[in-house]
Design goal:
By secondary structure, the protein is of the alpha+beta class. The chain has two domains: 3-110, Phosphorylase Kinase, domain 1, CATH 3.30.200.20; 115-354, Aminoglycoside 3'-phosphotransferase, Chain: A, domain 2 (Alpha-Beta Complex), CATH 3.90.1200.10. Helix content is 46%, strand content 13%. It contains twelve helices and eleven strands. The chain has helices spanning 3-12, 57-78, 122-139, 157-170, 177-189, 195-201, 242-253, 270-284, 290-294, 296-317, 329-346, 348-354; strands at 20-25, 33-39, 44-48, 87-88, 97-98, 104-109, 114-115, 207-210, 219-221, 228-231, 238-241. Strands 1, 2, 3, 4, 5 and 6 form a six-stranded antiparallel β-sheet that branches. Strands 7-9-10 form a three-stranded antiparallel β-sheet, with helices on one face. Strands 8-11 form a two-stranded antiparallel sheet. Strand 9 (219-221) and strand 10 form a beta hairpin. Helix 7 (242-253) crosses helix 10 (296-317). The N and C termini lie far apart (55 Å).
Length: 355
């Protein structure tokens, strides 16, 4: 057994006295390291929280514990069909385990289901809209003050622009036509960057508890039917604008080409957008204010632009934030998100009318 495998075995044993059957990598997340552990009794999910991304990993664990309890209780009272994971303590009763290297590990219950890499039909988009709407209903009465901010500056686009400017000015790597194209897109949309933050400062939009990362593959579907059964990956849950969730979910749900597709073939699918919004309204009703609706188009555009900017910045800094599997992957991801941003802008009139 290698040193890494031995360490992993020792960490797993902190969370269960049962005999361990298998320990396998789970999912294709870009941030944390996640494993599915099967034992003689029941499977569970083990995760090492990435300290480079989450500077206070214990805050992430505490947020998860608070939110998981709240969701479970509300789901029981309202008799909604969605299921949510809960925290599994260590054998000694702690919410997390810290190894000799100072890494923080936590375990949670395993939810059976399947995730979708992309939306393939409008029925799936409708289910995702319903699931996100239900999630917002369930956490709607959770006070912002109860949770830590797990990622200070998360979704604050002017901050990401400042980071990009610093990285671009000191970048010594090779240039390319793709890189020049990305730089040009950044300049084109730069002036719109503060729009959502300004709306919050003006009192048009309000801070609430949000998921923070409701992309398509964070929704679990039933293994037999095309029904969404859960919204997972609660690491980024915390205070923020509802528009961060709506913009992120729509840009992911309506991009049928996926985040690693061909930028030349990327499109923003309006049928998926309609289906998502119908599902979301089915759960949320007419709870969005006039200002909420007014800024929805900006949210979809700017969250797509933001993600492209973050991928581009990580490419410039040497891929220290997002996990990459080959050279140039973050640049390719940036090109996809910027292509999506352009398609959203090209459909502005139709999209504004729909939203």
């Amino acid at each position: 057994m290698t040193d890494g495998r031995l360490l992993l075995q020792q960490v797993v044993e902190q969370f269960t006295p049962d005999s361990i059957t298998t320990i396998e990598a789970l999912g294709k997340g870009n941030i944390n390291t996640t494993y599915l552990v099967t034992t003689s009794r029941q499977p569970f999910v083990l995760q090492r929280i990435n300290r480079q991304v989450f500077p206070k990993p214990i805050d992430v664990v505490e947020n998860f514990s608070i939110v998981a309890r709240h969701l479970t209780e509300k789901q029981r009272l309202l008799k909604m069909r969605y299921r949510f994971a809960h925290l599994l303590p260590t054998i000694s009763g702690n919410a997390w385990f810290e190894d000799d290297a100072g890494e923080i590990w936590r375990a949670q219950s395993y939810l059976a289901g399947r995730s979708l890499p992309t939306v393939r039909q409008t029925g799936q988009a409708n289910e995702i809209g319903r699931a996100l709407g239900c999630f917002h209903v369930l956490i709607g009465d959770l006070a912002v003050e109860q949770l830590h901010d797990p990622l200070p500056g998360f979704h604050i686009l002017p901050g990401y622009l400042a980071q990009f400017d610093s990285l671009a000015s000191s970048f010594q790597g090779p240039g390319s036509a793709d890189l020049d194209q990305c730089f040009a897109i950044v300049e084109h949309y730069r002036q719109m960057a503060p729009l959502l933050q300004q709306a919050g400062e003006q009192g048009h939009l309000h801070c609430r508890i949000i998921h923070g990362d409701p992309k398509v593959d964070n929704f679990l579907f039933d293994t037999r039917f095309d029904h969404a059964v859960s919204l997972i990956d609660l690491d980024t849950i915390g205070p923020g604008l509802l528009h961060y969730d709506l913009g992120d979910c729509l840009r992911s749900c309506c991009n049928r080409g996926g985040e690693s597709g061909d930028p030349q073939r990327i499109d923003f699918d309006m049928d998926s957008c309609r289906a998502f919004l119908a599902g979301y309204k089915q759960e949320m009703g007419d709870s969005l204010s006039r200002h909420d609706k007014e800024y929805l188009y900006a949210a979809v555009l700017l969250i797509s632009f933001e993600l492209g900017l973050r991928f581009l910045s990580d490419h410039l800094r040497g891929n220290t934030y997002f996990t990459v599997r080959h050279a140039g992957e973050n640049l390719q991801r940036a090109l996809v998100q910027f292509a999506l941003t352009k398609r959203i802008a090209q459909q502005e009139v139709t999209l504004r009318a729909l939203l």
